[in-house]
Amino acid sequence: MARSAKSTFRCAECGWTTLKWVGRCGECQAWGTVEEAGAPAWGGVEPVRVGSPALPISEIDVEAAHASATGLDELDRVLGGGVVPGGVLLLAGEPGVGKSTLLLEVAALYADAGPVLYVTGEESTGQVRLRAERLGALAPKLYLAAETSVAALAGHVDAVAPGLLIVDSVQTMSAPNASGVPGGVTQVREVAGALIRLAKERGIATVLVGHVTKDGSIAGPRMLEHLVDVVLQFEGDRHSQLRMLRAVKNRYGPTDEIGCFELTDSGIIGLPDPSGLFLTRRNEPVPGTCVTVTLEGRRPLIAEVQALVAPTALPQPRRATSGLDSARVAMVMAVLERRANLRVGASDVYASTVGGVRLGEPSVDLALALALAGSHTDLPLPRGLVAVGEVGLAGDVRAVSGVQRRLMEAQRLGFTKAIVPRHSEEPVEGIETIGVDDLGEALRLALPAKRRS
């Protein structure tokens, strides 16, 4: 058969292509199926036979796409119900925060419903087994494998046929057809692509553990976060038992939920009501402390802000913060200096939170300002008081979202009075709400003795 300069021949059965005509397909070995296809279409990409035809959207089966619970309520809250078959989840966090402990707990709970494959590239199976014994996470259908090759991992998947696949971690795996060292940009991209294809084709819920860099971002190419379906960030101070899980990206659920956990020697425990961890129990009020209500996602959390303003003989006063944004602390101090005539700039200032919680929401500004003012004047705030509001550079107290939800949480924990921005005084039974326009008015209400002296 004559062939034009740009034509090719394609098998009608499997799509195999060749530059010359042959009577038998070199791929599927079928006779008489090779036909002239002409020039490749789609800009050089030749169409091939599809694995399954396109269907009307109303005929698509959605039963297999429903989320299944992991058994860990706080994780299911963040995911929006659980893991989705074929969905790929990326869990990132600092070293030692408890990622492997969390996933081992999840694997043991999920194994009650079906087989789970836990592939570790950082530890031996014996080390993982010892941790599982300590956590009480031994399950008959939980399979362990120590592998660093994607090809070997695929073999384990064929043998086990898991409903949940956990890979710890994606930076330790390597793809044989990619250049570079494990953890490099090329290897991470190829490994992630192979695991995502495996998850989608087999309908396996897959969890990938990712390392983070010094600045807290996920190591590897940025494309890794775009490829996966869910990105979770596991946070916590290694000196504290509190851990927080938040969704950065979630194709199957909300991204404004947060899960709270307590890391103990016997495992990781979900905390459905963590507010009590961020308060100090004391008999009498202490100067320099103020309680606020922050929103982590849609969950209100009661937290205590502490400040210490102390005289110094140093030419450059010290500034130290823990759990608070140092830039916002400096801004609130400047507003107190300029708008409230409180000379705190020449003193050492220490500001922190209780329980290791990180408060980055602007609604904490008012509580921080009252704590700084109380420490500077050595006057305690009234018992049972909470403060919520953002402080502007002009000294105004700005409105924040979810005030009623915050006040309901404060009332539930026994607080009786709240200082909030004006026009945000939504009535909540059992708690007195006081609206203020600026920081000076808030100081007069919270520290009346200061004005009388």
Automatic annotation (TrEMBL):
Transmembrane segments: none annotated. ATP binds at residues 93-100. One of its GO terms (molecular function) is ATP-dependent DNA damage sensor activity. InterPro entries: AAA+_ATPase, DNA_repair_RadA, Lon_proteolytic, P-loop_NTPase, RecA_ATP-bd, Ribosomal_Su5_D2-typ_SF, Ribsml_uS5_D2-typ_fold_subgr, Rubredoxin_2. One of its GO terms (biological process) is proteolysis. Pfam families: AAA_25, Lon_C, Zn_ribbon_LapB. Residues 348-453 are annotated as: Lon-protease-like. GO terms for cellular component: cytosol. A motif (RadA KNRFG motif) lies at residues 249-253. Keywords: ATP-binding, DNA damage, DNA repair, DNA-binding, Hydrolase, Metal-binding, Nucleotide-binding, Stress response, Zinc, Zinc-finger. Residues 64-212 form the RecA family profile domain. The middle region has homology to RecA with ATPase motifs including the RadA KNRFG motif, while the C-terminus is homologous to Lon protease. Belongs to the RecA family. RadA subfamily. Plays a role in repairing double-strand DNA breaks, probably involving stabilizing or processing branched DNA or blocked replication forks. DNA-dependent ATPase involved in processing of recombination intermediates, plays a role in repairing DNA breaks. Stimulates the branch migration of RecA-mediated strand transfer reactions, allowing the 3' invading strand to extend heteroduplex DNA faster. Binds ssDNA in the presence of ADP but not other nucleotides, has ATPase activity that is stimulated by ssDNA and various branched DNA structures, but inhibited by SSB. Does not have RecA's homology-searching function. This is DNA repair protein RadA. It comes from Spinactinospora alkalitolerans. The gene is radA.
